[in-house]
Design a protein that fits this description.
heterodimer; A: about 325 residues; five-stranded mixed sheet; three-stranded parallel sheet; B: about 300 residues; mainly alpha; two-stranded antiparallel ribbon; 9 helices; about 65% helix
Chain lengths: ~325, ~300
């Protein structure tokens, strides 16, 4: 008899766990008072400071969601994942958004129960090699040992590139990026491969960054977008539009520094975007002034990029394809109206 | 009657777990299926033992390659750990204070070092070997560098010597630094545990047996080999089996240093295809199978020596 009670107890416990796919994420987030974001630590994208506060490009976009919902960037909670664990994090409901440099691919979008939001970084895969190796192009790495992090499209692109060019690589697949970097630094690998933004991060992590060069070849397209669970359209749209707001702000000439002046602007597009003229930015669970709050507290795309990745940071990245479409780049937000 | 209640409860629990998993998978829009095993892998594997593998091969074959890598580590690791464990365990019972001190240090330090730490340390140590251009050549055709140990191999066309290429070596037998680090770490760690099993089992044999053996004129070594160890084996074998099983399970730490064992390959596949539940089931089956077969083999051996 006692055993049956135990069985009943176990069933009761396990059934108490929530089914995150079906419920309303916005309701959960409101009730909890915080937005949970899955990130992958890396210089420029997500790094904690000595006070335990997270900073970086991915972190800023997540904080923008917290600002849109609670007008408070500190209402974003960050959970670090390796690339290997990230999808379990979002699918199990542990986080509400995954913003950790995940590439949009057709198979992920078609076969897995999650959606990709707007592309917030256009990247591509490349190689980092020791300067002393005198390798100048990717095909010069025939026969080389290449360090690669597990669980990314990087592993697949590397194999594709070798097949296409009739060369061979010996991959050393390591779960944690730091392990892969250590292996490159120790000379175990002739090259390390990851996305260009990541290569800049990795290079800055090495003891003598000047001894390493990033090869110019792009071997793949890596459009980076936030990931949300499928089946919750409301949450998906909130994430979509919050991620687009910094891009639209840059196009409208609104920066973190001058957005307050925008409130008195006569430009109808600016007035609509900032919620001065109501209608364009109203939505369930959103303050009509959320766009203003996001730009004032987080900044426009240029503010975020310059602060976390740009030439003034240790990464020193160029905007490249991540310029506005009006400046010859790929960033293009649908209109806020 | 009581047995049946236990059985029914266990069956109900298992059925409920399966049902619960199925319901939750459905709620998350996931479906189970193993068709992905026949799709091309599209990724390369760095260390492939004797099976050839290219990205055009199927995921199923990739798992097979991972399995042979795990089997390689498990087989060599168990044999070496038992051998080293025996030597250390017996040495610790010696009357020579230097030897007992040394072996005691070995056991205490290795038993209290986390295996992952030992593994990362050894991996870093092996990365400190000279580069391929400055490889050590203790014997002609033998190269030791941070790319691993390369030995000549015997083929149908005679002796094949490893050749130095632009970045690496090709041909011959290769032992990668990742495999070496994993194997050494597992053997050091597990042999420390095994040596204590050996020592305990020998001490458990009645002191009178040693005295009787000496009275018959057997030397210390003969007494150990002919009288003590055969009796101690009875107590030892189940625990040795247990240690081998631990070693096999611990070998899954390989992913931390980049050795493509079965877990590493399954992780990659799970991540690329989204079939994490299926890869997890395969993983469970692999380790359950390995553990049960070790238990079976050593159980048979145990039955023979205790009969």
């Amino acid at each position: 008899m006692r055993r049956l009670w135990l069985l009943a107890f176990l069933i009761g416990c396990a059934n108490g766990s929530p089914a995150p796919g079906g419920g309303s994420t916005l309701k959960t987030v409101r009730a909890r008072g915080t937005v949970k974001c899955g990130i992958t630590p890396g210089t420029g994208f997500a790094t904690p400071d000595d006070a335990g506060q997270w900073h970086g490009f991915d972190v800023d976009f997540c904080r923008a969601v917290a600002v849109a919902l609670f007008n408070d960037p500190s209402k974003a909670v960050f959970l670090p994942y390796t690339q290997q664990q990230r999808f379990s994090g979002i699918l199990s409901g542990e986080v509400d958004i995954l913003a950790n440099g995940t590439t949009i691919t057709s198979s992920r979008a078609l076969q897995r129960p999650f959606h990709f939001g707007p592309i917030y970084l256009y990247d591509g895969q490349g190689f980092l090699v020791p300067r002393a190796s005198k390798v100048t192009k990717a095909t010069g790495l025939d026969g080389a040992t290449v360090c690669v992090q597990q669980g990314t499209t990087t592993e697949l692109n590397l194999a594709d590139f070798a097949r296409k060019n009739g060369i061979t690589f010996r991959p050393v697949v390591i779960e944690d990026m730091r392990g892969a970097v250590a292996a490159l630094a120790a000379g175990r690998c002739d090259a390390l491969t990851q996305d260009f933004a990541g290569l800049a991060t990795t290079r800055s992590m090495l003891q003598h960054p000047g001894d390493y060069v990033v090869l110019p070849d792009f071997i793949s397209k890596e459009p980076i977008a936030p990931v949300v669970r499928a089946g919750d359209d409301q949450w998906f749209e909130i994430v979509n539009w919050v991620f687009r707001a910094p891009v639209e702000a840059e196009e409208l000439g609104l920066t973190q520094a001058n957005v307050a002046q925008g409130l008195t602007s006569a430009d109808p597009e600016v007035r609509r975007f900032l919620g001065v003229d109501l209608g364009a930015t109203t939505g369930d669970g959103l303050d009509p002034k959320w766009t203003y709050n996001v730009i004032a507290k987080i900044g426009n795309y240029a503010d975020i990029f310059d602060r976390d990745l740009g030439p003034k940071t240790s990464l020193g990245m160029d905007r490249g394809a991540n310029k506005l479409w009006t400046a010859g780049g790929l960033l293009y937000s649908p209109p806020f109206r | 009657m009581r047995r049946w209640i236990g059985f029914v409860v266990a069956a109900a629990l298992i059925a409920w777990f399966i049902h619960n998993a199925a319901m939750n998978l459905e709620a998350r829009g996931l479906t189970l299926g193993f068709e992905f095993l026949t799709q091309p892998a599209n990724f390369a594997i760095g260390d492939t033992a004797w099976l050839r593998f290219t990205p055009e091969d199927t995921m199923g074959r990739a798992i097979l390659v991972g399995l042979t890598n795990t089997a390689r580590v498990a087989f060599l690791g168990c044999l070496l750990a038992i051998a080293v464990g025996f030597v250390v365990g017996i040495s610790r019972l010696s009357t020579n204070p230097t030897l007992t001190g040394l072996t005691r240090g070995y056991v205490e330090i290795l038993r209290s070092t986390p295996l992952l730490l030992l593994l990362l340390w050894l991996s870093a140590l092996l990365h400190g070997l000279p580069s391929a251009d400055h490889a050590l050549t203790p014997l002609p055709g033998v190269f030791l560098s941070d790319r691993g140990l390369f030995l000549p191999s015997l083929t149908l066309h005679g002796l094949e010597l490893p050749r130095h290429t632009r970045f690496d070596f090709t041909g011959g037998i290769a032992l990668s630094p990742e495999l070496a680090a994993l194997l050494i770490a597992l053997v050091l760690h597990q042999s420390a545990h095994i040596s204590e099993v050996v020592r305990g089992a020998i001490l458990a044999v009645s002191r009178g047996q040693t005295e009787a053996a000496h009275a018959l004129g057997l030397s210390r070594f003969q007494a150990l080999r002919l009288v003590i160890i055969p009796q101690a084996l009875r107590a030892m074998v189940p625990l040795l089996a247990q240690n081998c099983v631990s070693l096999i399970k611990n070998s899954s730490l390989a992913v931390a240093i980049g050795f493509p064992d079965v877990v590493s390959v399954l992780n990659t596949i799970g991540n690329q295809t989204g079939h994490n539940v299926e890869t997890m089931l395969i993983m469970v089956a692999v380790y359950l199978g390995a553990s049960l077969s070790v238990a079976y083999v050593l159980g048979r051996y145990n039955a023979r020596i205790t009969a």
